[in-house]
Amino acid sequence: MHVVIFARNLMFADRLVTAATAAGHAVSPFAPDEEAPAADLVVIDLNEAGWERAVEWARAQQPRPRILGFGPHVRGDLFEAARQAGVDRSVANSKLAEDPARIMAEAALPGLLPPR
Q: What Gene Ontology molecular-function terms does this entry list (predicted)?
């Protein structure tokens, strides 16, 4: 699986890269002003300026990758905006920090992992 990550927060970016590479996945960073390679999963920090552009890029890819967003748990409005923009799943920062590998796998392959 190829994971493209749009996150500048070093704590989350490092956790995501570490979890994805440990699971054997290829990882690429995404910056809104750069072209990113095709992905199976795009992980987007919804607290970053320009997250909407990352969603637009992901939605335009063929085949379309799954899109996972994350942000502060108190920002229900942000999660709703992400859903309306086309994000497949959004989780709170704290949830993602608990088990980033599992959250990414669940987002990429919904319904294929056993319940936790």
A: DNA binding
